[in-house]
Amino acid sequence: MQIDTACEAARSTEQPAKQGFVIGFRPGQEVIWLSESLRILREEAPDVEVTLTTKSSPELADALMQGKIDVALLRRETRTAGLVFKFLVKEPLVAILPCRHRLVRQKSVRPEDLCLENFVSTARAAPVLKTVIDEYAAKVGLTLKQISDAEILSGGMSLVASTGGFTLLPLYVLNALIPAVVARPLYGDAPTIDLVMGYSKSNTSPLVKRFLLRAEELVDCTPQLKGSLRTMSSSHRNPPA
Q1: Which of 7, 11, 48, 59 is deepest in the core (most CB within 10 A)?
Q2: What is the DSSP track for 1-23?
């Protein structure tokens, strides 16, 4: 038994465990960011074993603090002891409406058009987003008639479709819209929410450091994101049809 144990230990020394790297995204964001993230990781460490995880922003922050994820694309969550956030891009918010809603015919939606509509909140799934929406509503004088609070963003879209109300979500949800809803830009200066790259100060992985140094490449080399931002940026300033 001692000989077998020694031989097994020797084999483990000769063949060390494969290095792993866990990267986290919010649902729908991986469509935009995963390809370029993998390219950078392959260039920095061709043999690394990459694991993808998809969670809400608060859940990603918790996983980072627990050391379960190396890097995550998320919001600037509060109560995140030991985490560091690196800014990536500002995402404008868009109005999510049922496909047959009267406002769908407009190129962009004015805040006053939403005053009489029921609002579906996603505060439990996205507390940072709630803060941005509340600040926007106060700025433009929009009183939100909240009828429900969804636990996940996809659930919020389902509630929009079933209740005939609306919600406000970041631009990236264009990649994850359910068939029963559509997105329309907000007229005027639309509110924005920061997308950041988060990591733990206690994570001393050299690969994490190298990946962070190349974070700007994710924005520069993601044409789908830049195209969507340009389209929404120009269209949300047009007056409604």
Answers
A1: 59
A2: -HHHHHHHHHHHHHSPPPPEEEE
Residue 69 token pair = 């994820």
How does DSSP classify residue 46?
Answer: T
CA distances from 140 to 134, 136, 167, 179 (A): 10, 6, 16, 30
Please name which of 69, 15, 42 lies closest in space to residue 217, comparing C-alpha atoms. Answer: 42
Report all structural domains of the chain as residue ranges with CATH numbers, in order of start: 2-89+193-235 (3.40.190.10), 90-192 (3.40.190.10)
Cβ-based burial of 216 (10 A; exposed 0-12, middle 13-18, buried ≥19): exposed
- With a cut of 60, say whether residue 201 has pLDDT above it: yes
92, 96, 100, 106 alpha-carbon torsion, rounded to 10°: -20
